[in-house]
Design a protein that fits this description.
single chain; alpha+beta; Multidrug-efflux Transporter 1 Regulator Bmrr, Chain A; 9-stranded antiparallel sheet; 2 helices
């Protein structure tokens, strides 16, 4: 599943949504999105219909990788202005920075192949290293939940290798 990413500098974004702590072994993505989707349209001033699935890892997550390590996952939408947050939602500021953007097409359960390629093959051979900022996926117009033709973009925070 070799793929050359698009390298992009993104502007900061203001996101609103819900979060949950989880691990790969205790995956709570379904629970998170089950809570988020019914209130998604109650969020004011959305920039688009895209959903940002944001993953926040601690500094050692990738250094001592273990599928039981926990991280925080967010289900969010981007907003242009924050006012009257719906009950149970929170604000997340995504800082500007350099990202490697990959496109994934297929079932969510099979995304591990691409992720393994990114972290084990592409990143070590590239001129970049992982930066300690949030990772995110954009579930846009081509995203179809649990469908083999579903498409999303994966954004990996990077910085030039020193």
């Amino acid at each position: 599943m070799k793929q050359t990413p698009i390298i992009k500098e993104i502007a900061s974004k203001t996101l609103v949504g819900k979060s949950i702590s989880m691990s790969l072994m205790d995956n709570k993505t379904f629970d998170l999105f089950s809570e988020f989707m019914p209130i998604r349209n109650k969020i004011s001033n959305t920039v688009s219909n895209d959903i940002f699935e944001v993953l926040i890892y601690d500094e050692i997550y990738f250094k001592t990788f273990n599928p039981n390590n926990t991280f925080t996952k967010w289900a969010t939408v981007e907003v242009s202005d924050v006012e009257d947050l719906p009950n149970g939602t929170s604000l997340l500021n995504l800082a500007s920075g350099l990202y490697a953007m990959f496109t994934y097409k297929g079932l969510a359960k099979d995304i591990g192949t691409l992720m393994t390629y990114i972290y084990s093959d592409w990143l070590p051979k590239s001129e970049y290293e992982l930066d300690h900022r949030p990772h995110f996926n954009i579930l846009g117009a081509q995203y179809k939940n649990n469908h083999p033709e579903s498409e999303e973009t994966i954004w990996i925070p990077i910085k030039t290798r020193v």
